[in-house]
C-alpha cells in the first residue's frame, strides 16, 4: 500500500508532464487549473455552504424512500394488481394478524369471540379496508393445519408511506396478548416497514464501522494524517450531496430505500479512489521541487484527467440500469450517477483548492513514524510490483491460462441460479413479520397470501364463470380455486398453487392461466405472476443494457488509449473478473452455505434484479481500476515506445495505489454487508469480493499477462481511428513535443513479444 506516498523516489513527473505546452486539451486544462485554484479559500467556503444546504435538503430522505420496486409497472400483473386494489380491496390484503390460541383450538368459543371482536375493531380503523378472517369466512386457507392458529386479513390503503404510517398507529394496539389469544403482526406492509427500519439502522451502524476503519487505512497508506483526512472529506461531501439529490427525486418519482446503501458505499469508495490518485500525484510533484500551484496544475493535467475519465466509465455502467422499468434498479442509477459525479466534482474542484492552501503541509502529522522505530524506508517501495509484473510477463501463457481457468471455475455455481422475489426471509429470523410469514409457510395450507388472483373483465353469466372456474381448477398445479366475487362487469378468482408461492410450478401455472380460454378478458397477478413479468422485463432489456455498457466503454477506453485491442481486452477481462462474485452469490446466498456464519435465511433463490445491479456496479468499479492502470501504461508507452517496460512501469506505479483503493472500498462494502437484510448483505459482500478479485488477480496477473501476449499489436489502430484519437483522445500525461517514435522491429519488441 505504501507505494502511494513515496514522493521522493525519483518516479515523479516524467519529461513533458509538467509543461503547459502541448495540445489544445492541455491549454483547456490549464485554464481549468487557474479557475479552481484562483481563490481557494472562497472555493472551500462555497463548498462548506453548499454542504450545509445539502444536509438540510437531504434530511428525512430515508423516510420518503420505498422498499418495493421489483415489479414491471407496464406488466399485466401490475395492471391487475391496481385494478383489484381499486375494485376489490379485500382481494389484495397487505396486513395479516396471526392469532395464536395457544393450547386451545381456534374454534373454541372464547377464542372465536375474541377473534371476532378484533376483526370488528380492525374494520372500524381509519385507513383500513377489506377486513376478513377465518372466523367470518370459514376458509380453510386461513386456518393452520394444527388448528391452533388462524388469520385476520386486511388492506391498509394509500401509498407505501401512508400504509406504513397506518401500521405504526395500529400495530401497538393489536400486537401482544388479547384475552385468550396472542396476536402477531405480519403481511407485506409489515415486511416492508420492518425492512425500511432495519436498513436505516444498519446503514448508520455501517457508517460507524466504515469511517474510522477507512481513516485508519488512509493513514497507513499516506502516513500523513492531514493527507488521510482529505479523501474522507471528499466522500462525506459526495454522500451528503447525493442524499439531497435523492430527496429531490422523491418529489417526482419512486426511489428505493436500498439506494441509500449504494450512496454510502460508492460515496466513500470512489471519493477515496479519486482523492488517493490526486493527492498521491500532487505529493510526487511537490517532491520534485514544484510550488503548490504548479504541482496542482500538473496533477490536474495528469491524474485529474484520469479521474474525470474514470468517473465517466463508472457512470456509464450505472446508467445502464435506467433502461429497466423496475424502480428498484432505476433508483440505483439515480443514486450511483449522482454520487459518482459529485465525488469526481469534489475531487477535481475542492481537493485542488485544499491542496493549494496546504502545500507541503499535506505531509504533516506522519503517524507512521510512531511504528517505524527509526528504520529507513526502501528507496522504491513500488519495486515489488515491478518485479511481479516482470515475472508475470516472463510466464505470460501460464498466468493467462491459469488465472482465466480459475476465474471460470469460481463462476460455475452461477449456472445453477434460480431467480425469485424478495420476501420476509430478507429480514433477520427474529423479526416479527418474518416469524409470522414463516408460521404461514410452515403451518397453513396452500401458501395463503401467496396465491394468484385472476381479474375477469366483461359481462358474463354465472354459468360462464362456473365453467371457467372448473377449467382452471382442473389444471395440474392448482390446489384450489375460490370465487368468483362479482362486482358489475368485473370479477376475480383466487387460485392457490400446490407448491410454494413462487416455485417453478407456480410460475408454470401463471402461463397456463394466461393461456386458458375465457369468455371475458382476464389478467393474472400474484407473487408468481409478478416474478414471471419481472424476469421477462429483465430478459427483454438485458441485451440492450449490455450493449450500451460495452459500446460506450469501448469508445471511452479507445479515447484514452488510441488502441483498438485494449478496449476489447478491458471489456472481456472486466466481465471475467466478476465470475467469482456471481459464483459466490449462488453458492452462499442461494444454496445457503455459510448462512449460519453470516446469519441469514436462504430462500433458495436470488432476487431477479440483484445480479443486474451487482454487474453494473462491479463492472463500473472494475473499469475504474482499469482506467488507473491503463492510463499510466499508456503514458509510459508514449514516452518510451517500449511495450514491455510500459506494462511493468504502469503496474509498478499503480499496483500499490489500486490495491490500497480496493482494500478501502472492500472495507466499506463489507461494512454494508454487515446488514441484517439478506439482499444488502449479498450486495455488500459480493461487490467487496469482486473488487478484491479485480485488483489483486485481474489487474495484477491477468492484464499484464494478456498485454504481454498481444505485444506491440496491443497499440494498433487503423489510420482513420488513429487520426481521430490524435484529435479527440485523452491520456493521463502530456506527451512531449518530440516524443520518441518506437524503433522499427523485424519481429519482436524489447519484451520479446511479436507485433
Explained architecture:
With 755 residues, the protein is α+β, with helices and mostly antiparallel strands. The protein is 62% helix and 8% strand. The strands form 3 sheets. A 5-stranded antiparallel β-sheet has the order 2-3-1-5-4, sandwiched between helices. α10 packs antiparallel against α18. The chain is elongated. It starts with 23 loop residues before the first helix and ends in a 27-residue tail after the last helix. The N terminus and C terminus are likely disordered.
Q: How would you briefly describe this protein structure?
A:
With 755 residues, the protein is of the alpha+beta class. It is built from 25 helices and 11 strands. Helix 9 (259-287) packs parallel to helix 11, helix 13 (383-394) crosses helix 23 and helix 18 (527-561) runs antiparallel to helix 19 (565-577).
Question: How are the secondary structure elements laid out?
Answer:
Blueprint: H1 24-37, H2 40-58, H3 76-87, E1 95-100, H4 109-123, E2 128-133, H5 134-137, E3 149-156, H6 160-174, E4 176-178, E5 181-186, H7 188-222, H8 225-249, H9 259-287, H10 292-319, H11 327-358, H12 369-372, H13 383-394, H14 396-411, E6 419-420, H15 432-443, E7 452-457, H16 462-473, E8 478-487, E9 490-497, H17 504-515, E10 521-526, H18 527-561, H19 565-577, H20 579-590, H21 595-598, E11 606-607, H22 610-640, H23 643-673, H24 678-710, H25 719-728
Parallel strand pairs: 6-11
Antiparallel strand pairs: 1-3, 1-5, 2-3, 4-5, 7-9, 7-10, 8-9
Helix pairs in contact: 1-10, 2-8, 2-11, 6-7, 7-8, 7-9, 7-23, 8-9, 8-11, 9-10, 9-11, 9-23, 10-11, 10-18, 10-22, 13-23, 13-24, 14-20, 14-24, 18-19, 18-22, 19-22, 19-24, 20-24, 22-23, 22-24, 23-24
